[in-house]
Input
Amino acid sequence: MKYKRYCKTLKLEDNPELIEQYKKVHEPGAVWPEITQGMRKIGIVDMEIYIVDNRLFMIMDTIPGFDHDAAMKELAEKPRQTEWEAYVSQFQQTSETATADEKWQLMERIYKLGN
Output
């Protein structure tokens, strides 16, 4: 299946204890079910988050006709999304009221191997 891919980045607080807690919040089964359901409903097919030091890197694969800006606005209205963003903000270099779209910065691809 063809899909659209987005890569994003975000910084966590530079605190090893908070970083470990953030990792636990994202362990299998730990993310609130409403959050993953909301992401799937707006067209996010798969997502991975990687970490180095206090820098996060997200790979987000979406349906072919995905409209990023519209989908992020829709995601912000999904059940418990605002509550989730406030909860995880304690680990992030961001404000408690920031949406996922305001926190996660889109990255520009500058190289691709192959077609």
About this structure: The first strand starts at residue 4 and ends at 11.
